[in-house]
Design goal:
Blueprint: E1 21-23, H1 28-35, E2 56-62, H2 68-77, E3 81-84, H3 91-99, E4 107-111, H4 123-132, E5 137-143, H5 146-156, H6 168-185, E6 188-191, H7 197-208, E7 217-224, E8 235-238, H8 259-266, H9 271-291, E9 296-303, H10 309-323, E10 327-332
Parallel strand pairs: 1-3, 2-4, 2-5, 3-4, 5-6, 7-9, 7-10, 8-9
Helix pairs in contact: 2-7
Length: about 350
């Protein structure tokens, strides 16, 4: 899932109406005119553009090597107009151009990263400007662990954009610090540490493929505490209060997907009551998320190794959420690592 393998942009028929991807270089001349004093609009002319014509905007950012290019290509395949490495100061201009396309560009995805770091300080100002003009925008942040990022950079034998004369880990640390505030403001954080390209595309499809966005989408992820907490978890559930099937010899080789293991887990005192009460709690939380405009939630369910209790509970909890009308995806992060 490297950010470094790029392909030449194919030539495009000027009469074609198919969505395509451009780069920030395509707008460099316009930015240069702005710096030289030329009058370049950086906002939407509310008087000349109907509100209904303003395109939907998704900003893709995150750690180098975490899968930004894959996420952008996925949106491009879904019909989004994708702009790669656009200087943040030009985002309002891009939205204005889309608004003037008479509906031909209804959805725009912009990739913003440290390659344009001298423009990065302008991102917050641009987002604030879009908010005041009523533009629907979301920020997707691609996250990954240091170990995973180092392996990816070493596999392609490329330096990190910010490492300078230092090591890869130095560049990663500098980038995390630079993106810390943006990560906190993101609408959707996706941890790609244990995802391959196809799994990341599946996650993006689940969030953006539908024509009508559901009220709430949930990812229920099982994990093992001994492997660390998922960095993209919104809620964390600890199932270590139940007896561990690992210590039952006939159950040890199996996982929580096995019916006997699941029956063992939920026959323990308090297990069924926990599912019932936590499901009720999630209904309250989901209602609050909807009021606050949050559309995605990741529920991390943990046990010691992420093999038995957390897996069985994740499956049961996901089924309960689905029965309540919540679109749910189940991910077993650490199953199979032992």
């Amino acid at each position: 899932m490297s950010e470094h393998d790029t392909q030449p942009t194919p030539e495009r028929d000027p009469h074609s109406q198919e969505p395509h991807k451009v780069t920030g270089e395509d707008l460099t001349r316009q930015e240069a005119r702005q710096e030289d004093g030329a009058q370049v609009s950086t906002g939407i002319d509310a008087g000349g553009v109907p509100e209904a014509a303003i395109p939907e905007l998704v900003i893709i950012s995150g750690m180098s090597g975490a899968g930004r290019s894959t996420a952008a290509k996925c949106l491009e395949d879904l019909g989004w107009f994708v702009v790669d490495n656009l200087p943040p100061a030009l985002i309002p201009t891009m939205v204005e151009l889309g608004a003037r396309s008479q509906g031909n560009v209804a959805r725009i995805a912009v990739v913003v990263d440290v390659r344009g770091r001298r423009f990065f300080d302008n991102l917050r100002e641009s987002l604030s400007d879009l908010d005041t003009r009523g533009v629907t925008r979301r920020v997707v942040f691609l996250e990954s662990s240091d170990d995973a990022l180092v392996r990816r950079f070493e596999s392609v034998r490329r330096p990190h954009p910010l490492q300078g004369d230092g090591r890869i880990v130095d560049g990663i640390a500098a980038e995390r610090q630079l993106l810390r505030e943006l990560r906190g403001d993101a609408d959707l954080v996706i941890d790609t540490s244990s995802l391959n390209v196809h799994e990341l595309r599946a996650k993006m499809d689940a969030q953006f493929a539908g024509e009508e966005e559901p009220e709430l989408r949930a990812t229920v992820m099982s994990f093992g505490f001994k492997y660390g907490l998922p960095v993209d978890a919104d809620l964390v559930v600890d199932m270590r209060f139940l007896p561990n099937p690992h210590w039952v010899p006939e159950l040890r080789p199996f996982t929580g997907l096995n019916e006997e293991v699941s029956a063992y887990v939920f026959n323990q005192p308090g297990a069924k009551e926990f599912i019932d009460r936590y499901s009720e709690l999630l209904q309250l939380i989901a209602a609050g998320y909807r009021r606050e405009g949050k559309r995605y939630v990741t529920i991390a369910v943990g046990c010691t190794g992420g093999k038995h209790r957390s897996v069985a509970t994740s499956e049961k909890l996901a089924a309960r959420l689905a029965s309540q009308g919540v679109e749910t995806v189940v991910v077993h992060r650490d199953m199979g690592r032992e």
